[in-house]
Amino acid sequence: MQISDVIGLLHLIERHDITLWIDGGWGIDALLKRQTRPHGDLDIVVETRTLPRLIALLSEEGFQRLETPDSRDWNFVMGDIMGRRVDFHVITLDDRGNGLYGPVSGGQAYPASALEGKGQIGNHPVHCISAAYQVASHDAGYPLRPQDYQDMQALCTAFALPLPDRFLPPQA
């Protein structure tokens, strides 16, 4: 996903009064206010109540749902013939502002503080997942990719957060 693609999609979505939060690699770059590396997709967090409108809007732009092995109603990907991909993370806000993710019985949620991130992509201001939550979620135990070390070190430095041991560069 090129920066021009991301900004174009953000403008389109905002014109239709849909709020979302940028997550993943673009979310990290938004917090850092600069693109640090290429990104294969745009990860977004979107509320259940606006999901049908967003799916319809992207469908009109040529996006369609792509079946992936881990597709769920609350986590799926839409893509278009140009290779642009949007990875959806669907939440329902509770009365305390937490974003319940997936079935309530699963107990997964974006805490309200995670939804308070502010950043920018290019010169475009965006809501994004907070730096502290980005670090915490990356520290949750899934296999790390090489870019995760760089991303977490950059976030921890920029936001004066402690760097978890897991993100120390691997020893050769």
List the helices and strands and how they pair.
Blueprint: H1 3-15, E1 20-23, H2 24-32, E2 42-47, H3 51-60, E3 64-66, E4 75-79, E5 85-93, E6 99-101, E7 109-110, E8 117-121, E9 124-128, H4 131-138, H5 146-158
Parallel strand pairs: 2-5
Antiparallel strand pairs: 1-2, 3-4, 4-5, 5-6, 6-7, 8-9
Helix pairs in contact: 2-5, 4-5
Provide a compact summary of the structure:
Strand 5 (85-93) and strand 6 form a beta hairpin. The protein contains five helices and nine strands; from the N terminus they run H-E-H-E-H-E-E-E-E-E-E-E-H-H. Helix content is 31%, strand content 24%.
Structure explained in plain terms:
The protein has 172 residues and is an alpha+beta fold. It has one domain: 2-Layer Sandwich (Beta Polymerase, domain 2), CATH 3.30.460.40. It is built from five helices and nine strands, in the order αβαβαβββββββαα. Strands 1, 2, 3, 4, 5, 6 and 7 form a seven-stranded mixed β-sheet that branches. A hairpin with an 8-residue loop joins strand 3 and strand 4. Helix 2 runs parallel beside helix 5 and helix 4 runs antiparallel to helix 5. It is globular. It starts with a helix and ends in a 14-residue tail after the last helix. 29% of the residues are buried. The model has no long low-confidence stretch (mean pLDDT 94).
